[in-house]
Amino acid sequence: MAIVTQFLVELENRPGSLAETCSQLAAKAVNIQAISVPRAGDFSTVRLVVNQTVAARKVFDSMGIKYSEEEVLSVRVSDRPGSLGRMTRKLAENKINIEYVYGTIEKGASDALVIVSVSNLKKAAQLLK
Question: Engineering a disulfide at 9: which of 3, 17, 62, 67 sits with its beta carbon 3.0 to 4.6 angstroms away?
Answer without folding.
Answer: 67
